């Protein structure tokens, strides 16, 4: 078989030159499907990472009923401080909240109050810090039963919503990737089929003089693999460069968002995309070769 | 060497190409297959290089059973059988040398050996001067010589020819027959389907006549035997 490698690669190249547009279309569909796949993987990795970092958040935010007086708020605060598993409680009063808000939008307190109808719209807020991340959920539950508090916010709640969302995304991503992947396989198989047809005379003679089916198949198989590999390589480059760019952008604008920058994951995804591209190519070729080499 | 036992071939469209054919062809024989068009000659030829499989009966070549043979064994059978056609079946974008060498390249023969054997075979069929020519630059007779060279380059035990002189003028046809005769003298069995009355009558070889899919006549040193 090694004596024939020159022949095989020559044939592969020739057939790509014969119908460049179809080859280009095949490469692009492979690329599109794999770009989507690559970004989906990175998005999911980031969502998982984000979920994890929120899960380990120790803080619980709770709003105090508007009707409470400052004294009642102080009582509530010290009452919570006594609860088991609580490390500390800090209070942001409605006045502080108003002041903070005023700073961010650049108005004065009195002007804001008059703008919203004469009363301070902000509630008092307690931030409860747990001693152990394991306790956060139980602690939040028991705070929810406290009549003086409402709107208990903690990491887990956000994480649940995030997970629900990523579940959806997983399915949609899977569907889109599968659809494009199937299109890529079909295009590659058409590509190979056309080349089989344009070389049917040669193939007939090859069979006549006793070339093995394996030998006849190789150039077509390699053609499919090459198309898939080119598509996969382009996809890996686009995903890699694009993700890098997004990372830099996110880190400079949304500094609080944790972004995954994992060299190992990077390499795995790149190699994975190349292999997936080649697999698409191989499947496409095999589809179109199955029928014709039987007789 | 070749043995057909109760062979029938019915195509999927219902055409009965061969009916209960029994034949034995010995090693080194030269055999003409004659008979009207559509009588089953080409089908018989195709059975010999396993282009077709009989509907019933057995085909054996050198005690290999072509009917029970597995698909992946077929290429190795074909390497021991040379085939020549009326329409030559040469690759138009390859030179004489490349067309002949092709038969060796595709079965994985090393490059140096390909070169030597191809040159020797081209020399044998008398085309040494035209080694670099393309098929369209050759006469019909020369093209058929290329086809013969390609068929014999693997030293096949059997050479089958389906009307090899059908597209050639009588004089050129005789050149090809001389070539086949030479090849036969070197020990290769030759089975040739033909309509060339003059050739069959002159060569005085075994003649098998096929009519309506049956063996109608089988004579050693026979003649063509049809009047038209």
Outline the secondary-structure elements:
The complex is a heterodimer of chains A (295) and B (228).
Chain A: H1 5-18, H2 20-55, E1 59-64, H3 70-81, E2 86-92, H4 94-105, H5 109-115, E3 125-130, H6 136-144, E4 149-154, H7 155-198, H8 200-208, H9 213-253, H10 263-292
Antiparallel strand pairs in A: 1-3, 1-4, 2-3
Helix pairs in contact in A: 1-9, 2-7, 2-9, 2-10, 7-9, 7-10, 9-10
Chain B: E1 2-10, E2 16-25, E3 30-34, H1 41-48, E4 56-61, E5 64-65, H2 74-78, E6 81-85, H3 96-105, H4 111-124, H5 140-152, E7 158-162, H6 170-185, E8 189-193, H7 197-203, E9 206-211, E10 214-219
Parallel strand pairs in B: 3-8, 3-9, 6-7, 7-8
Antiparallel strand pairs in B: 1-2, 1-4, 4-5, 9-10
Helix pairs in contact in B: 3-4, 3-5, 4-5, 5-6
Domain ABC transporter (chain B): 2-228
Subunit structure (chain B): Homodimer. Forms a membrane-associated complex with FtsX.
Main location (chain B): membrane
